[in-house]
Every structure is written in C-alpha cells, then in structure tokens.
Amino acid sequence: MPELPDVEVFRRYFDSTALHQEITAVEVRETRLLDGIDTRQLNHLLRDKEFTGTERHGKYLFAQVASHGWLVLHFGMTGFLKYYKQSEEEPPYPRLLFEFSNGYRLAYDNMRMLGKVAYIDTIDDYVAKQDLGPDALKLSEEDFIALIPEKRGMIKSALMDQSFIAGLGNIYVDEILFHTGIHPRRQVSDLSDIELQTMYDTMHEVLGTAIELEIVISEFPGDYLIHYRDEDAECPKCGSPIRKIKVASRSTYFCERCQPIKESGE
Ligand SMILES: [Zn+2]
C-alpha cells in the first residue's frame, strides 16, 4: 500500500514528467474514484490548462492546475502513476488518464480502486477537512515529543493514526519500531523521552532511505525488516525468529528479542 515514501516518489515522478504541458483531454474510466466532482467538471477544470507544481501531505498528492486549484490524488492500496507515449501500451488498470499536447499520457492506475480523485481550492482547508495531522517528515522533533503523549493505547496504533501523524502505514511503522527496538504493543504512556527521540530520528532515517532508494525494496539495507516479513524468517539483527501478531487489526512483524514488550528499565 502506498505510504509516505511511495507518494513522495510519485510526486517526484509527476514533477519530472507531467508539469508544464497542455492538457488536451481527461478521460475518466472509473467514476467511482471521483470524490465530489464529475467527469464533465473535471474536464472543464483541466482542459487546455497545465499542471504547474506539486505538493504532498501524508499519503496525498496534490497537483496544482495553472494557479487555479489543485487536483488531489490518493492511491489507496494499489495506486501508482505511469507516464507514457500515447502510442505505447497503457498500464493494466488506468482509471484516469490525462492526455497532453506533446503526445504523452499520464495514467492514474489503481487496480483495487480504494483511492480517490478530487479537485480543491486550497490544500490547508482540505487537510483540515480530512482531519489529517502534520506530515511525518515536516513535523519537528519538539512537536513529535510534545504531541505523542496525548495519544493513548499502543504505539503502533498511534503512529498509524493519520489524524495524529499523516503518512505512515503498516509497513513503515513496523520498520520504524524494529529499528527503534520498541515492541508494537508498548503503551505510548510508557515511552521515555529518549525512546521518543530515537523513534523520531529513526522515522526520518527510514523514510529518507526509502525515498532515496525510490522504494526499490530489493535495494533497501540488508538489516531492514521489510525483507523478513515472514514468520519463518530470522531477525537480521539477532537471528531470533520474527514474530507475527495483530496490532490495530493489521499484520505486524517484529523481533521479540530486539523489541521486548517490557519497559526499558528506567
Ligand atoms: Zn532481533
């Protein structure tokens, strides 16, 4: 499922392909993905215009339309972008297609159709309406440490709550907790400031690494949990078996030895 690093890579891809070209047509093949807008309105708003810039907040990508408003893309479980020549084969599940005057298309592909497409005036209003917390990479360490004790319950649930911090999902939360050495079921109220500082630094490191490597998972460092999301796997740090449990109703992988449930003994 696309999380913050994936959407940041999509944003950069969008920037390097689809900006500053005249949009000649918008084809909506799956209207169920449209949120608060219809095909005719979308065509009216985008045709003969250009995309002039992009922003990202959490898992949302925003593409500015010639200083008018913003196209919103959310990728759900399976979404991605593909830019290609109109004469080339299209990706497998293009739900929305933009045609440009240079003979290229940008497809928003989404097999499982759990994302959405919208058109908005301002990002700040939209972020507030969607009840999104600050973006995980734009949040300062001070704010992270100040905010997190307001959350109750387990740390994994807190980190996955988009209204608290926007951008993290199942895979990257497991990765961050693994490198921080914190059990996913630890209570937020049990965590020390030092643990929270380490968690914040680790969050930046993990997300930054994933973006830098353009989410090519095979190139992720060898001690990343993402390569070992399997109950029979050995922990890449200590060799103990990787465990699978449910936390926040999501399959969660962790190492009992590297991530003990008990507090850190302070
Ligand atoms: Zn381990």
Please provide a written account of the structure.
- The chain is an alpha+beta fold and about 270 residues long.
- It has two domains: about 130 residues, MutM-like, N-terminal (N-terminal domain of MutM-like DNA repair proteins); about 120 residues, Helicase, Ruva Protein, domain 3 (Orthogonal Bundle).
- Helices cover about 25% and strands about 25% of the residues.
- It is built from seven helices and ten strands.
- The strands form three sheets. The protein has a four-stranded antiparallel β-sheet with strand order 1-6-7-5. It has a four-stranded antiparallel β-sheet with strand order 2-3-4-8, sandwiched between helices. It has a two-stranded antiparallel sheet with strand order 9-10.
- The chain is elongated and about 60 Å long.
- Bound molecules: zinc ion (ZN).
Uncertain runs: none
Task: State the name of the first-level CATH class of the largest domain.
Answer: Alpha Beta
The SS-based structural class is: alpha+beta
- The string of secondary-structure elements, in order, is HEHEEEEEEEHHHHHEE
| Main sheet overview | 4 strands, antiparallel
Q: Give the tally of β-strands.
A: 10
Cα-based radius of gyration, to the nearest Å:
20 Å
So, the CATH homologous superfamily of the largest domain? MutM-like, N-terminal
Calculate the terminal CA-CA distance, rounded to whole Å.
Answer: 37 Å
Mean pLDDT: 95
Please name the CATH topology of the largest domain.
N-terminal domain of MutM-like DNA repair proteins
Basic shape: elongated
Reading side by side through the largest sheet, how are the strands ordered?
1-6-7-5
Query: Which molecules other than protein and nucleic acid are bound?
Result: zinc ion
The residue fraction in helices comes out at 25-40%
Number of domains: 2
Under the CATH scheme, the architecture of the largest domain is: Alpha-Beta Barrel
Looking at how many chains there are and whether they match, the oligomeric state comes to: single chain
